[in-house]
Every structure is written in structure tokens, then in C-alpha cells.
Design a protein that fits this description.
Elements (H helix, E strand, L loop, with lengths): L1 E2 L1 H10 L3 H6 L5 H8 L6 H11 L8 E2 L5
Antiparallel strand pairs: 1-2
């Protein structure tokens, strides 16, 4: 399972809000909703987030094993 927890920390460190992602950087509000609910995003979106935040994919997502 993918977690976007690192993304929220990175955004806080860089003082970037979801509002600025939508208005300034053109990220679709539906994509923000997907991120908030840990749903999938495209590789293109991941690339854009990395460009905006000046980071790598490891700074945006992490893999969490599902415990059974």
C-alpha cells in the first residue's frame, strides 16, 4: 500500500499548501482528493509534485506493508 505521508511533511517544510498546488501549479483538485485518501496517482503527477517541491519520489510516497 502507498502512503503519501511524506508528501504532507514535505509540503509543510516547504510552506506549500494544497490551495497553492491547485491555483499556482495547476494540480487538479480531484488529484488532491486522491492524495488525501491514499488513492493512486499517475507517474506524471508524481513527477510534477517532485518538480514543484524540488524533491524525489521517496520524499513524496512510501510503501507500507499490509499486515494480515
Amino acid at each position: 500500500m502507498i502512503s503519501y505521508e511524506p508528501l504532507w511533511k514535505m509540503m509543510e517544510e516547504r510552506n506549500i499548501t494544497t490551495y497553492s498546488l491547485i491555483t499556482k501549479h495547476g494540480i487538479n483538485p480531484r488529484t488532491i482528493n486522491n492524495l488525501k485518501h491514499s488513492r493512486g496517482i499517475t507517474v506524471y503527477t508524481l513527477e510534477r509534485l517532485c518538480e514543484i517541491l524540488n524533491c524525489t519520489p521517496n520524499d513524496v510516497i512510501k510503501f507500507v506493508s499490509e499486515q494480515k
